[in-house]
Specification:
Layout: E1 2-13, H1 20-26, E2 28-45, E3 54-57, E4 61-64, H2 73-82, E5 88-94, H3 104-119, H4 126-140, H5 148-155, E6 158-163, E7 169-173, H6 178-186, E8 188-192, H7 199-207, H8 215-234, H9 237-251, H10 261-272, E9 277-280, E10 288-292, H11 295-304, E11 309-310, E12 321-325
Parallel strand pairs: 3-5
Antiparallel strand pairs: 1-2, 1-12, 2-5, 2-6, 3-4, 6-7, 8-10, 8-11, 9-10
Helix pairs in contact: 2-3, 3-4, 3-5, 4-5, 6-9, 8-9
Length: 326
């Protein structure tokens, strides 16, 4: 049996510029970090005395004789691309709910490919794993998704990621700014809204307008990345938290479906009770809110916001790993 462990991620600035529809023309930049909440994929040889050849366990259980009969499209495509011949059983478990803005879809792809590569005795490094994951989602599945999540989940850590116009990318680790990271982490609060959604339904809308109507908005969002980098270097975590507020106001302009009355009311209440800034993670419309809340008011903040589920977390540095092989 092989078990991969892949982190979820938090995105701070630059979201929207990591879509190939944008960065292949103008280049893109994002700042994000992985956290110590994980998605696990286990993979093992399935004994041949079963009537089925493949068993896939997630929110459903599939038992089929042919790869082409697998309904889970990511698993089906990955097994076809890998030309897997063995009888196989695959299990998925996650620390956080899917469709909640934490990069779970890409984390699943990265973790699955990491496990299948190990199963096939292929030692994938961080770069090759990220590229393979982006290719599977964007070209194989033909989904309207960005590229930052696959890179973040593969590499791990607190990073500045630059996407070039030739479709390549470069990861610049920000982990050396340990004092900033520690102080920022202590002042961040992650709250689940209880609303799950499919990100692609939202992203398809603004991607169609990304080179025309939304060009200014993406450029404005990108301008915050440089400001955020300077604040990290200066170790000004408070101003970084304030900048989240500016970024959220810009993000909402990308599409009217990104927010709604329910989310706006949460944000207003959070600001009234001590949050300096924040944002909805991922594409929007639900999922997780990330807030910067000064430590001295955090206890009161959590009491006032107790109608939402808090998820305590720490930044992590490792990215997708094989944690068990036998």
């Amino acid at each position: 049996m092989i078990i991969s462990r892949t982190p979820y991620r938090i995105s701070f600035f630059g979201g929207g510029s990591d879509y190939p529809e944008w960065y292949n023309q103008f280049g893109g930049e994002v700042i994000s970090s992985t956290i110590n909440k994980y998605l696990y994929i286990s993979c093992r040889d399935l004994p041949k005395f079963f009537n089925h050849k493949y068993r896939i366990v997630y929110s459903k259980i599939e038992e089929v004789k042919k790869i082409t009969d697998i309904k889970h499209k990511v698993v089906r495509l990955a097994l076809l691309k890998k030309k897997i011949k063995n009888n196989l059983e695959i299990h998925y478990d996650g620390d956080l709910p899917s469709r909640s803005g934490m990069g779970s879809s890409s984390s699943f792809v990265v973790g699955l490919l990491k496990a299948l590569n190990e199963f096939d005795n292929i030692k994938s490094n961080k770069l090759s794993l990220a590229k393979e994951s982006i290719d599977l989602e964007q070209k194989g599945l033909k989904e309207t998704v960005g590229s930052q999540d696959q890179v973040a989940c593969s590499y791990g850590g607190f990073n500045f990621i630059k996407f070039r116009q030739d479709s390549t990318f470069k990861v610049f680790s920000l982990d050396k700014y340990q004092l900033f990271k520690n102080k920022l982490n202590k002042n961040l609060v992650l709250l689940f809204t209880g609303k799950q959604r499919t990100a692609e339904k939202i992203t398809r809308r603004f991607i169609k307008k990304i080179n025309s109507a939304k060009k200014k908005e993406i450029k404005d969002i990108l301008s915050l990345v440089k400001v955020a980098k300077d604040l990290i270097i200066k170790s000004d975590h408070y101003a970084f938290g304030q900048l989240l507020d500016e970024g959220w106001n810009l993000k909402k302009k990308l599409d009217k479906k990104i927010t709604n009355n329910f989310l706006d009311d949460i944000y207003k209440k959070a600001k009234l009770n001590g949050a300096i800034g924040g944002k909805i993670l991922g594409a929007g419309a639900g999922g997780f809110f990330l807030f910067y809340v000064p430590q001295d008011v955090k206890k009161n903040f959590l009491n006032k916001m107790n109608f939402l589920t808090e998820v305590p977390f720490l930044f992590e540095n490792n990215g997708s790993q094989i944690i068990y092989k036998n």
